[in-house]
Amino acid sequence: NDFSLNYIDILKLDVEGAEIQVIPDLIKSNIFPNQILVEFDELYKSSLLAYLKTTYIFIILFLKSYKTIDINNFPNFLFVKKELI
Fold first, then answer.
1. Coil, strand, or helix at residue 45?
2. CA–CA distance, 73 with 56 (Å, rounded to integer)
3. pTM across the whole model
4. What is the pLDDT of residues 36-58, one digit of tens each?
5. Distance (Å, whole) CA 3 – CA 18
6. Tell me, what's the pLDDT at 52?
7. Given its phi and psi angles, is residue 43 left (phi above 0), alpha (psi -120 to 50 degrees) or beta?
8. H helix intervals, 29-69
9. How many whole angstroms separate alpha carbon 61 and alpha carbon 4?
10. C-beta of residue 21 within 8 angstroms of C-beta of residue 28
11. CA 46 to CA 32: how far, in whole Å?
12. Rounded Cα gap, residues 20 and 18, in angstroms
């Protein structure tokens, strides 16, 4: 709003574990960048809860027409709107 942007082409998220809260807030606010590059800090923890939280985010993004692109840099993931591929 501050910059009167109509769209976001690329959004890079490195929010030190807050991605689990930030991404659902983006979707609820109807903010759909063409590409989202996100580091899932949760995945540094080897726990079932960490994987469930991350899976929840993947599902949200898939339901909003995002697809993952392999960047071979775990735990970083690139999500791209399907119509751009």
1. coil
2. 20
3. 0.87
4. 999 998 888 889 998 999 999 99
5. 24
6. 94
7. alpha
8. 48-63
9. 24
10. no
11. 30
12. 5
Q: Are 26 and 43 in contact (CB under 8 A)?
A: no
Please state, as a whole number, how many other Cβ atoms lie within 10 Å of the Cβ of residue 44.
11
My answer on whether omega of the bond before 24 falls inside 30° of 0, hence cis, is no
Alpha-carbon distances of 23 from 7, 11, 43, rounded to whole Å: 16, 11, 16
Q: Check: CB of residue 69 under 8 Å from CB of residue 78.
A: yes
Tell me how crowded residue 30 is: count the other CB atoms within 10 A of its CB: 6
Classified as helix, coil or strand, 66 is strand
Please identify which residue in the block is written with the tokens 């590409």.
Answer: 35
- Half-sphere exposure for 56 (CA within 13 Å, toward CB): 15
> How does pLDDT run across 17-30, given as a tens digit for each residue?
899 999 999 999 99
Measured N-to-C along each axis, helices 19-28 and 48-63 cross at an angle, to the nearest 10 degrees, of 20
Both tokens of 82, joined, read: 């399907």
